[in-house]
Design a protein that fits this description.
Number of helices: 9
Shape: globular
Largest sheet: 5 strands, parallel
Radius of gyration: 16 Å
Structural class: alpha/beta
Low-confidence stretches: none
Mean pLDDT: 90
Strand order of the largest sheet: 2-3-1-4-5
Order of helices and strands: EHEHHHEHEHHHEH
Strand content: 5-15%
Length: about 190
């Protein structure tokens, strides 16, 4: 099974993926990590801005589904995977070539996501809510090789609202989500 996680900035995609990996033995691939690997080979600093530009250029030069193809080339049959940083509809379309793929849109209210971002305090994160909103607009193009998070969210099989402040509550919600995914795939005879 492949669980794809897309969603808004600081919605908790990686936190959910970490739990799925730790508690259920999935292998995690981040499409952003694939971009980082390519940037490292070229000696480019992996800032958030550079990741966006480099990823857009990589898609423009190699097709918009290139990151999904690179991730799938690492996969083996009969293993479970959790894929994060899905930011383009063509990446989703590549993964949908597999019958065992299900896409989850992870989201949370904007003010909750902004506070999470401030608490994690990563270099390059926007310092104001206005800059945060501006950043999100950059990640929501509607065409081309850039990030298209709104379209990705619209393509999701399930939307998962991660508004929990308590990690135990979040983990319980993830368990419910995994049960729902398992039931869906069983109904589809996957």
């Amino acid at each position: 099974m492949i669980i794809g996680l897309t969603g808004s900035y600081c919605s908790g995609k990686d936190t959910a993926a970490d739990y799925i990996v730790e508690k259920h033995g999935f292998t995690h691939y981040s499409l952003s990590d694939i971009i980082r690997e390519s940037m490292k080979e070229e000696g480019i600093e992996p800032t958030r801005e550079n990741l966006i530009v480099f990823g857009t250029n990589l898609r423009a030069q190699n097709g918009n589904g290139v990151l999904a193809k690179k991730a799938m080339s690492k996969m083996q049959d009969n293993q479970n995977y959790c894929i994060t940083s899905i930011r383009h509809p063509d990446e989703i379309n590549e993964f949908r070539n597999r019958k065992d793929f299900i896409l989850i849109n992870v989201d949370a209210p904007q003010n909750v996501r902004f506070e999470r971002m401030r608490k994690r305090s990563r270099d390059g994160d926007p310092e104001t809510l206005e800059k945060f909103v501006e950043f999100e607009k950059k990640e929501s193009q509607s065409e081309g090789s850039g990030q298209q998070l709104v379209k990705c969210a619209e393509m999701a099989d399930i939307t998962f609202i991660n508004d929990a402040d308590d990690i135990a509550a979040l983990n319980a919600k993830i368990e419910d989500l995994l049960a729902e995914i398992s039931n869906r795939l069983k109904r589809q005879n996957v």
